[in-house]
Fold this sequence. Notes:
- The protein has helices at residues 29-46, 113-126, 142-147, 188-192; strands at residues 20-25, 63-71, 74-86, 95-103, 132-138, 150-158, 161-168, 183-186.
- By secondary structure, the chain is an alpha+beta fold.
- The radius of gyration is 18 Å and the shape is globular.
- Strands 6-7-5-4-3-2-1-8 form an 8-stranded mixed sheet, sandwiched between helices.
Amino acid sequence: MRCADPVDYCELPAHFAPCEFRIKWADSAWERDEAHRLRRAVFCEEQGVFEGDDIDAIDAQAQLIVAVTQVGGMPDQVVGTVRIHEDRRSGEPGLWWGSRLAVAQSFRSHGKLGATLIRLAVTSAHARGCHTFLAHVQAQNLPLFRRLHWKPLQPETLHGRAHWLMQAELDHYPPCFDVFSGFVTRSTAARSGVAA
């Protein structure tokens, strides 16, 4: 007796793409593992910024934030990530940094994943006493961050690439305390009725 092909049991079309995403603090091992896998894919393989791996000393104290696809209300895969940390070495409590913002290549046209990751990064730090939130932003992302109420402070070169040191305008980022529920966003393709 022939076993049925698993595809026979799946009601989703072959070209299915998730349209709902939860952006939240990573709180499970699989989310953290997948966030690191995504960072390697973006920063090592795609962009060639790092060789082999991008993990550094900051990861030991940083909080990972993830964008997780939702299928039937259940988490499916990590398609975006960013990390945040308070700079305790500066001797200035309340100085926070964001870094390693990455969205999977196949999900970059799905709406506001990067913007929502940035929003939770800043609002969750704000809820924890942040008075200054900074990031080194790749130069090609300057327009996005300006639209999201960040101000450029100075141009810099990091890892041989043009960056801007930027600061979030905290008045536009009210504190978010429910970081494990986070935010839900939907694909712009889904909202417009276009197949994603």
